Amino acid sequence: MEKLSRACRHYMKIFLFYIALFALTSARGQVRLEKMPPDLETAYALSALPVHLREKATVYLLDPEKGYYVSRRGTNGFICFVSRTEWEWTEFREDLATPISYDAEGARSIFPVYFDVAAMRASGNFNPVQIHDTIKTRILRGYYKAPSRAGISYMLSPLMRVYPGMPDNKTILTISGPHYMFYAPYVSNEDLGFQADSPGPVLNSPGQQVFGEKNAPYGYIIMGASESEKAIILENGRDLMEQLARYKPWFKVQQATLHHNAKMP
């Protein structure tokens, strides 16, 4: 009987160990982010902005163990960072990297979502579905609010590693598509008269699949940079692109498109 009791305790310890291990890997989604070299991450984040706004912009860098922190405090109201987790897609990846910038309004109303998502992922206490549900609940309860005025997010980097589709498509690509995003909360393509595959601006609102059409607070009207502007961006960003490709092979551009399934003209 004593031997049986010892055996039970032994197997119980093993069982509890694997339960704890499963909980840990489930919470982390089994994918841990690597800290980018600070100088490279800074240059990559700043590449989202027009050149004339970079010197006085605030730069956020990501500590995978804690979340975003201010690396450099700016004075012009613009912020920039590299997004590594997109909550709508309910998955953790190590190869997502999207330079984004916001004006003062976007920094106030939109960036807190990215900030909190990064902190939740870094804590190891949330899996992707839990983060998705937490952000959705907070938006519905008014904890996060839509932009209160018109504004702009510059995404002028020479390359980005993004989901080019909506959240039901987990494909990810490294693309070259510098563009401008203007805040467009709670609107649909029908409201704007946009047609699929038409030239000109497009509406990007992945949150519509979470909240329903015309209910997403973080929609954007996207305009691609002109061909002449794009050529200058790519030429000026050549060294950065080479540095990124040396850092991780998946930074090599695979496709020249605009964000979220809208091809460049």
Structure description:
The chain is of the alpha+beta class and 265 residues long. The protein has one domain. It is 38% helix and 17% strand. The protein has a four-stranded mixed beta sheet. A hairpin with a 3-residue loop joins strand 1 and strand 2. The longest helix is centred in the N-terminal third of the chain and has 27 residues. The chain starts with a helix and ends in an 18-residue tail after the last helix. The C terminus is likely disordered.
The main β sheet shows up as: 4 strands, mixed
The parts where pLDDT drops under 50 for at least 5 residues are 14-29, 260-265
| Widest sheet, order of strands | 2-1-3-4
Quaternary structure of the protein:
single chain
Instruction: Tell me the number of helical segments per DSSP (H or I, 4 or more residues long).
Output: 10
Q: Give the topology string: H per helix, E per strand.
A: HHHEEEEHHHEEEEHEHEHH
Radius of gyration equals 21 Å
How would the blueprint of this fold be written?
Layout: H1 2-28, H2 38-46, H3 51-54, E1 58-63, E2 67-72, E3 79-83, E4 98-102, H4 104-109, H5 111-123, H6 128-140, E5 152-155, E6 160-162, E7 173-175, E8 179-183, H7 189-192, E9 202-204, H8 208-211, E10 220-224, H9 227-236, H10 238-247
Parallel strand pairs: 1-3
Antiparallel strand pairs: 1-2, 3-4, 5-8, 6-7, 8-10, 9-10
